[in-house]
Each structure stands twice: as structure tokens, then as C-alpha cells.
Design brief:
159 residues, mainly alpha, two-stranded antiparallel ribbon, transmembrane helix, transmembrane, membrane
Length: 159
């Protein structure tokens, strides 16, 4: 499978959890992820939170958030992306690390989003988790590359 098709499946997974799975022919998994996204999105009030956040009404977005439900979202979202990426033909060892670290740190961002100020700014339940997720993805990529480099070195040395 060419690289463009693999990337396309990942990008559909980024658009909405489940779309990449549908493109990969994993219909039950795709529909399940779409339903879970719809449930979590609705219960967490995600669209309203996004609307308030884009308008700069961070306190209103915090007040509108159902945090126990929103904490499911980073894991659901990152799993959907990783699974579409994996089923699209990316089977290298440790490829899950950027997605797992993004989910973990995105969830940590949600936990602290009502209280933590960075540079004196309260980012809220949309921007802080996104920032933390990107940092998690970057950390996961670094760890992935270090582990892959270590594995290649072991193979070359015959271990």
C-alpha cells in the first residue's frame, strides 16, 4: 500500500474517530467509534465548550464542561487515530507511543484545565488539553525514535 493511502487513513482518523476504520473496511469498529464519539461529545458538551473557547469565553467553557465525560475523549480520539494508522499498514514496533503519550497528556490537560494557568493565561478545557496532547505526541515521537534506533543497533550488533 502506498504512503499516500496510509496517510489518508490517518487523516480521516484525525477528522473523526471511526472514519479511518470505515476507510480500512473495519465497519463494526468504525461505527462503534463513531457512536462512542457522539456519546462522549454529547455528554461532555464538547461542541458548546469548543464554541465558548473559540469566542474566548474560557470561564463559560469551564462551567459548561462535564469533566468525567470529557476525560474519555483524548483516549477515544487517539485510539481512533492509532487504530486507523495501524490498520492502514503501519506496523512498526513502538508506533503506538506518540498516540498513547498524546492521550495520556491530553487527559492530564483536561484534569488541570480549570485551574492551571500558563504564562498567566487560563486555557480551559479545549486549549490546554490540545497543548498537552501535542507535547505528548512530540514526547512519544522522541521515545519512539530512541527505541527504534536502539533496536536497529541491537540488530546490527547481532543481539
Amino acid at each position: 500500500m502506498d504512503t499516500h493511502k496510509k496517510i489518508e487513513k490517518l487523516l480521516w482518523g484525525i477528522a473523526l474517530p471511526g472514519f479511518g476504520q470505515l476507510l480500512n473496511g473495519k465497519y463494526i469498529k468504525g461505527i462503534t467509534l463513531i457512536l462512542l464519539e457522539f456519546i462522549v461529545n454529547t455528554k461532555a458538551h464538547l461542541n458548546l465548550i469548543i464554541l465558548y473557547s473559540f469566542k474566548g469565553q474560557i470561564v463559560r467553557s469551564i462551567e459548561a464542561t462535564d469533566y468525567p465525560w470529557l476525560m474519555f475523549y483524548p483516549c477515544l480520539y487517539m485510539f481512533g487515530m492509532w487504530d486507523a494508522y495501524k490498520d492502514g499498514g503501519h506496523t512498526t514496533p513502538y508506533a503506538y507511543l506518540p498516540f498513547a503519550m498524546g492521550a495520556f497528556w491530553g487527559t492530564v490537560g483536561i484534569i488541570y484545565s480549570a485551574d492551571l494557568k500558563l504564562f498567566g493565561i487560563l486555557f480551559g478545557p479545549v486549549w490546554l488539553p490540545m497543548l498537552f496532547a501535542f507535547l505528548g505526541i512530540a514526547t512519544g515521537i522522541v521515545i519512539y525514535k530512541l527505541l527504534r534506533k536502539s533496536k536497529v543497533k541491537e540488530v546490527r550488533e547481532g543481539l
